[in-house]
Design goal:
CATH superfamily of the largest domain in chain B: ABC transporter type 1, transmembrane domain
CATH architecture of the largest domain in chain A: Up-down Bundle
Distance between the termini of chain B: 43 Å
Strand content of chain A: 5-15%
Radius of gyration of chain B: 36 Å
Distance between the termini of chain A: 67 Å
Structural class of chain B: alpha/beta
Number of helices of chain B: 21
CATH architecture of the largest domain in chain B: Up-down Bundle
Structural class of chain A: alpha/beta
Largest sheet of chain B: 6 strands, mixed
CATH class of the largest domain in chain B: Mainly Alpha
Helix content of chain A: 55-70%
Strand order of the largest sheet of chain B: 6-9-10-3-11-12
CATH topology of the largest domain in chain B: ABC transporter transmembrane region fold
Number of domains of chain A: 2
CATH topology of the largest domain in chain A: ABC transporter transmembrane region fold
CATH superfamily of the largest domain in chain A: ABC transporter type 1, transmembrane domain
Oligomer: heterodimer
Shape of chain B: elongated
Number of domains of chain B: 4
Strand order of the largest sheet of chain A: 6-7-8-3-9-10
Strand content of chain B: 5-15%
Helix content of chain B: 55-70%
Number of helices of chain A: 22
Amino acid sequence: MKLILKYLKPFYRRMSLGLGIKVLGTVVELVLPLILSYILGTVILSGDVWRIVLFGGLMVLCAAAACVLNIIANRMAARVARNFSEKIRHDLFDRTMRLSARQTDKFTIPSLESRLTTDTYNTHHFVGMMQRMGVRAPILLIGGLGITLFMDPMLALVMIAALPFIFVTVFFVSRRGVPLYTRVQGSVDGMIRVVREDSQGIRVIKALSRAEHEHARYDAVNRALVADEKRAGLTMGVVNPIMTFLMNLGSTLVVLLGANLVMGNRSAPETIIAFMQYFTQISMAMMTLTRIFVMYTKSSASARRIEEVLATEEDLATESEEKYPVRADEPYIVFDHVSFSYKGKRNNLTDISFTLERGGSLGIIGATGSGKTTLISLLMRFYDVDSGSIRIGGRDIRTIPGDELHTMFGVALQNDFLYADTVAENIRFGRDIDDAAMHKAAAIAQAADFIDGFPDGYEHMLSAKGTNVSGGQKQRLLIARAVAAEPDILILDDSSSALDYKTDANLRRALAEHMGNTTTVTVAQRVSSVMGCDLIIVLEDGEIVDMGDHEKLLRDCEIYREISDSQMGGAIVE
Amino acid sequence: MRDPRAQNNPNKSAAPEKLDRRSTGKILRRLGGYMLRHWYLIIIAVAFTLLSNQLALMGPQFSGDAIDAIAAEGGVDMDAVLYNVKWMVICYAAAAVLSYVLAATMIFLSQRIVYSMRKELFEKLTTLPVGYFDTHATGDIISRISYDIDTLNSSLSHDLVQVMASIYTVLGSLIFMWQISKPMILVFVVTVPASILFTRFRAKKVRPLFRARSHKLGELNGYAEEMLSGTRTIRAYNREDEIVSRFDGRNFEAVEAYYKAEYYGATLGPTVNFINNLSISLITILGGILLMFSTNGTVVAGSLFFITIGGVSKFVQYSRKFAGPINEFANILHEFQSACSAADRIFKVLDEEPEKPDAEGAKAVTDVRGDVSLEHVKFGYVPEKTIIHDLTLRARPGQTVAIVGPTGAGKTTVINLLMRFYDAEGGAIMIDGDDIYNIARDLLRASYTMVLQDTWLFYGTIYENIAYGCDGATREQVVEAAKAARIHSFIESLPEGYDTLLSDDGVNISKGQKQLITIARAMLPKTSMLILDEATSNVDSRTEVNIQKAMNRLMEGRTCFVIAHRLSTVRNADLIVVVKDGRITEQGNHEELMRLGGFYSTLYNSQFD
């Protein structure tokens, strides 16, 4: 809940103004019964019809004022809630986008998604409701208590004696309630996961006729969610009856005690009657407060989940150059005895060392799962090395600020993404790239032809994940994106696997011609994609088996020869 | 920024204003249908509500009697006080228990409705054609199944019972007021219609705003989902700020839509409350005047206009009781607007055209030989853009057909048509001489095994993922398949082996390994036809050579459709067809096409460049 208060802080002034207006509106409305009893008790006796109408008119006026004031206050409350949500959602999304790969893996995407949506929605709802309902009830409660205390302190104290019990109940229930709602949100994550997976895998599901199976899988998460919601609801539902009962018990005690007091002539029956009336008002107020309390519990579970993300410590912080001093006079990219493991159990990369000059080209080749993608993930610092160091231009990449480091790269990754926007936007990717540069990039990436083939050219809309272009077209758009900003380092991770050999060859040629000053790292399975590189690394099980240029490897490296043979039509497959 | 989905799907256009009254009526009727399914729970809930209202009224009754006993002439009647106090405690205790039971009933009712709605929506989704998922953002679908259903539920189940229970209060107070003074009821003749008119007028104005609110939230969800899937690329390009600022735009639209709905909705409650206060004021004026004439004798006792001071005060009290639920109605109506727009979005999905049902008398094929022929097939994803113009080819049982061509030529589209993910516009596709539109779709699909370029694995163990295509696959069979796909030793090297949980975008597993798992999955079902769409594109070529044996076994005796860029996979095919711009430009076997010296031979030779 600290989180909600923190985010509400900038709005304290506007909120107090709104709440002030709301208080005024409530008070004006509370005047109505007073005028009413005045009319019936006093004005009637005067026998003047016009005075009745006059005071009646005053009532109408008060009612209208209350109406206007309440509307204004409600609107102000809605505005505060809007600004609050906008800010909190912005911060959450911002933090989410900057989570390190490892942190994202830990939260999982469906969970991050539901935190961004349902959780922020819950807090939004609460902030709005609290302002609308949280004013009248306390006024009625405090006002009622004050008046009763004034009327007969002893009787009032009897009633107030019920309050500690109510607070204890509320305390215990909320202690149970928050984890229960946290579980509910966890189940929401689970449900979203299935819907998300199945939306993405619908072809496989249909091909294998697994709809029934998926129904069962969904049913399980659906049931789990319903069960969690029921449990939370049933727990929270306890508060209201207990509270009402305690209040009523208090009132019963008042009657009992009152009877004794009256008997002892220490109180009058009228006082007891008035007392009971205020009592009704107080318990109505308490009821509203419990409703707010239930909402509070639910939203504080959500607030916690949001805070979890916001409070995630900056991973991969920029380290000082004292810790990792700059080395002068060394090649552009240096891997210096690098080892790394995703899970800390088995090394995914072991003792990787190589150097690459500026403008040079590196090819990485190796079996599935040999650590090729891991290697470039380390270069881009998606993860930090466990031991050894990676240096660019003599600087350890841990000392290069994230935004500086990442503007060096142009990348086309394996699982890369296109999004619902124009072709031009997907190539520009929000960077400041002019049309000429974009066209040039498309030409290098061999994408110009098919883009020009679209009726609306570069303004052609892609659908989410680029489902309306073919696999090869997707890859070429990604390459265009990668080369568009003329990066220092170009990384192509298996980014031409869906291209036919001819296009691939043209692509290589264009890259060599136009991107000569760029240091290039190419991960590939085809020898033809890397054979032109200055340095080729052959990876196996996370270790460098051999490295060198194409000729050297063909001569010395058996694995490389095998790969080459299998692709160059040399090895006839059974 | 424009949204391509809106273009592709005219019926999902962003026109929230269009919800006219007739369709609101329809939505209400449909919602009624959902409630009626649980009519017994509703009856129980209403009964409990009435009962607990009754008990809540009885408590004050006893307390009133107790106070009367205190104020009794001749001193406090302590016995009567104690008697009433005893009953007060009993009543309050019973009311507490009952109100908890009621709350529990409501929870059961609403959870049952939510459960069945989510279930229905999800099951509907699985019947929709593949095209729906190609054109709708996943995040928006998720928003419908979570946010919209929640919104709908929270207002539906709670409010309905509230309304039904309060009808009792409204009627009761009306009768009492009628008994006290008929002329004063006239006030309500003015104010009640005023309330109704006002709420209707407001509702009309607010309705589109609520629709926009649901819609915008869905869009925001869609965007967030999309960007969350691309975090790595965004990070690699250092585009976080840019993406966040775009998110901000959508976020603003979403909260603004929410605010607008609230802004206009905020007038409803206070205004109806005002009208109620107005009627009380009018009653006071009228009552005051009548009372004055009654006390000074102008109106004789027993006449229609006669009233006592007690009468006026009771009338006011009842009119408050009467106004309470009406006030509540106004608030509920406000929530109901958001429920309606949520319901509309849910029903939109439920009303989507599902995959065409099987033709009447569709054949239940079980023993497919795998004789596939396409005759003059024509197809386009959007009507104005034909992808496949005129495609004719024949694959005899056991033959391997390789489809080659430049990217974007329509190779994957052919697969989409064979599997009936999309239906062809013209021409015919036959299996064993039967038009595939006359074959039960499930069985048609079940007669294929498919390995796609886009690997799809779900949150579950590796074992479950491999066994996915084949009910009741034993552990041994799964291991056997994994061995054949050359992924067994990798799986064994994982600490939990086959029980390793694959979470989304699992870091410990590369794309190539994912593909090998899907190949293992394809090893299990015994079908007569096989589709390999770039099945090994992410597998390195040495592994590919190693699994070739298994692939050959997989292909043996089956009719195979292969799309591949590695021409080593293609050259052994019985038939190679070159597809270009939706037409077959060359076909024949490897030698024939090489002799032809066309596109294929250039392509083949280019790998040696």
